[in-house]
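Help needed: design a sequence for this.
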């Protein structure tokens, strides 16, 4: 293929985001967004910050107010907080700056890790999981490489414990350990308190899922002053204004109404349990999930066929083509109403026999 790109990017395979259909006809259960709208204070703050007089000026490159709000919520100092344009942006900095001795991450996990490793020419090891997609902390101990683990993991929803994280961070000497907590608010336990104990531990979170702000692009990281200063250096060497003023205002206001967002998360967790029960009754195997999605398969219908049949019925879920997980679909937990429709359609598809068309 023709390209003007430098040779070093010749083999780079970019990340493929989930579909974002332009029409609103779908029940969208494919990219783990919240089914609930942002709260009223968040929306008002956006309108206020978007006033023409404010947009004239650059955003605060230190995001002072936003950092103070996040620090207050998690009981840390502002100097323990880094904010950026989505947590993907933070992970990009992690792979850019913290992986010189190589990096290891679970073989089945967030697909972007491998893309970032390739982008930055980092040596990487994909660590196989145990039966049932279980992450074994011992696989990450004493390897003297940077560790990146999503907890709960994606796309499986399975979580490791704080003891596991202590073990990995404590045994890993000087290399950073990054815990990607994109889904922690749906039932997991954050490792933030461990960042006091382990200077090499970085916790990465996002406003995209639990706080209904995927479109605003806002992620944050919590860790030792040293790790945060290192990240700031990379940000100030890339794009100091990468959190725009409208997004910073949205994030600050969202922390102000955090209780409401956490109630939404509880609601989603309850809907998740209901959905698990119904799909189990329909014969699905469901990986135990603490996230706002479930990872499911069925012996009757091939994973890709289920994805296609649901899409025909205007329900989008996420299917991954890679060999180890091609029988599975990752289904975002929506509203109870949306999940009732999903369960009904799946029941229908199974009643049709899970047969190939024309049989
Ligand atoms: C969604 C997701 C992210 C990216 O979140 P943004 O803040 O929207 O960039 C990071 N890690 C995992 C595991 C995710 O699922």
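Sure. Designed sequence:
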């Amino acid at each position: 293929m023709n390209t003007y790109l430098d040779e070093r990017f010749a083999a780079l395979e970019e990340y493929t985001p989930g579909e974002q259909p332009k029409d609103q006809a779908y029940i969208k259960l494919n990219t783990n967004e919240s089914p609930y709208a942002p709260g009223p204070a968040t929306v008002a703050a956006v309108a206020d910050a978007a006033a023409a007089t404010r947009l004239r000026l650059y955003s605060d490159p230190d995001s002072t107010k936003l950092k103070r709000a996040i620090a207050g919520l998690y009981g840390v100092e502002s100097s323990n907080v880094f904010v950026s344009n989505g947590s993907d942006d933070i992970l990009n900095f992690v792979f850019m700056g913290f992986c010189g001795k190589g990096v290891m991450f679970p073989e089945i996990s967030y697909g972007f890790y491998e893309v970032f490793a390739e982008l930055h020419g980092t040596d990487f090891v994909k660590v196989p999981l145990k039966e049932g997609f279980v992450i074994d902390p011992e696989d990450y101990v004493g390897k003297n490489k940077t560790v990146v683990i999503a907890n709960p993991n994606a796309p499986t929803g399975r979580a490791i414990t704080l003891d596991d994280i202590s073990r990995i961070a404590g045994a890993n000497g000087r290399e950073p350990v990054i815990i990607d907590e994109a889904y922690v608010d749906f039932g997991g336990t954050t490792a933030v308190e461990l960042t006091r104990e382990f200077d090499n531990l970085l916790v990465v979170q996002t406003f995209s899922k639990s706080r209904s702000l995927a479109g605003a692009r806002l992620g944050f990281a919590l860790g030792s002053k040293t790790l945060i200063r290192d990240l700031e250096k990379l940000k100030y060497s890339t794009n100091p204004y990468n959190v725009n003023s409208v997004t910073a205002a949205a994030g600050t206001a969202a922390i102000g109404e955090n209780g409401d967002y956490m109630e939404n998360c509880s609601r989603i967790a309850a809907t998740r349990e209901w959905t698990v029960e119904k799909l189990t009754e329909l014969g699905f195997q469901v990986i135990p999930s603490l996230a706002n999605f479930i990872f499911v398969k069925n012996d009757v219908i091939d994973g890709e066929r289920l994805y296609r049949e649901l899409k025909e019925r205007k329900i989008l879920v996420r299917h991954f083509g890679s060999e180890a997980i091609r029988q599975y679909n990752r289904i975002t937990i929506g509203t109870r109403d949306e999940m009732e429709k999903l369960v009904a359609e799946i029941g229908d598809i199974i009643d049709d026999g899970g047969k190939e068309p024309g049989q």
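Residues 108 and 325 are 8 Å apart (CA to CA).
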